[in-house]
Write a structure and sequence with these properties.
Layout lengths: L1 H19 L1 E2 L16 E2 L10 E5 L3 H4 L3 H11 L4 E5 L7 H11 L6 E6 L22 H4 L4 H7 L2 H12 L2 H15 L4 H7 L10 H5 L11 E2 L9 H15 L3 E5 L4 E2 L2 H12 L4 E5 L17 H24 L7 E2 L1
Parallel strand pairs: 1-2, 3-4, 3-5, 5-7, 6-8, 7-9, 9-10
């Protein structure tokens, strides 16, 4: 009986994960808010022969604010062979980016856009702001992430927890399954509760995670001090760039338009790390933020949405042109 139950749990998890996997060609954004990055299937170059595949990592500004949609419209109106894949997740930070990049980079995207702001590297928020830690031990991810990443962020208990998610997918699928069933009201709550595995899942409940909207908590306008930064953000940046180097994947780092500023010395460190990689482009758009055109410290108001998208689209096009022109030169790019 025990073996039968274990087999059913294991099999149902793999079946649920397979059933909920979706192609980013048909649904060009991550579903489920801060959850389920691993369900999105990023297309290979063969599937997108005529288009450059542009991956947009990021936070709620990309995921839910309509910016990638506007960028795609601009590309199509200009007959540009670019396809933007919105792989941003609410509140994602630098360590989430690192795991997400490891997940998709074997497919060799033509450009990965990495927007960042003060929250991306702030120590006031968790090390993992999405459920990316739950896919850190997926076989394809484990092959790419460096040992130093695991040594910094996983002890015995957290490593076991994440490892179980890789081999018992029902563990990480459980919140999404319960959320979907409740959302669609296909089954009564008492029945869903009987099918749940909360003791297997250390994440927040799906209700807490998926109720997040694109609105972030309004933060005080000003700047962080160096004491406010996550102490290991530099290592995360370096590891991210090293992974890109290994696959020769171009990166575009955009300092987002925000009201919360990063300390100048920290900015110089970040810029220096980026410029050490010849296939990376750095762009600072922070100065475009204003209280009049943004609803909070990060999100543009409706009138600012198109100009915001135009700036980010222009950055992508310029980065691609510079990388093409200088592909044989080992020099940094600075827009």
């Amino acid at each position: 009986v025990t073996l039968t139950v274990a087999t059913l749990i294991l099999g149902s998890g793999y079946a649920a994960q397979q059933l909920r996997t979706y192609s980013l060609i048909k649904t060009p954004m991550i579903k489920f808010g801060s959850y389920g990055f691993y369900l999105a299937r990023f297309p290979s170059g063969d599937e997108m022969k005529e288009h450059k595949r542009i991956v947009l990592l990021g936070n709620s500004v990309y995921q839910y604010w309509g910016v990638p949609h506007e960028m795609q419209k601009i590309a199509e109106e200009g007959s540009q062979p670019l396809y933007f894949f919105n792989m941003a997740q609410v509140s994602a930070g630098i360590n989430d980016y690192l795991v997400q990049l490891a997940k998709i980079i074997p497919q060799k995207p033509d450009l990965v856009v990495i927007p960042y702001n003060a929250d991306t590297i702030s120590r006031s928020m968790p090390v993992f702001r999405t459920d990316s830690d739950q896919m850190s031990f997926d076989p394809e991810v484990r092959k790419i992430l460096p040992l130093s990443f695991y040594q910094r962020h996983f002890g015995y208990q957290s490593a076991t927890d994440a490892f179980l998610s890789a081999w018992i997918p029902l563990k990480r699928m459980d919140p999404l399954i319960r959320w979907e069933f409740k959302l669609k009201t296909l089954l009564p709550a008492w029945f869903i509760n009987q099918l749940s595995y909360p003791h297997l899942n250390a994440l927040e409940t799906a209700t807490q995670g998926l109720s997040l909207t694109a609105q972030q908590k309004v933060r005080s306008i000003g700047g962080l001090t160096e004491e406010d930064l996550h102490p290991e953000f530099e290592q995360a940046f370096q590891e991210l760039i090293q992974i890109a180097k290994r696959f020769s994947t171009p990166l575009l780092f955009i300092q987002q338009e925000t009201g919360s500023q990063i300390p100048p010395r920290t900015l110089e460190k970040i810029k220096s790390m980026i410029q050490a990689y010849p296939r990376a482009v750095y762009l600072n758009l922070q100065s475009f933020w204003s209280q009049e055109t943004f609803v909070d410290t990060a999100h543009p108001n409706p009138k600012e949405l198109v100009p915001y998208a135009q700036r980010h689209y222009g950055a992508v096009v310029t980065a691609l042109e510079k990388l093409k022109q200088d592909s044989e030169k080992e020099v940094p790019h600075d827009l």
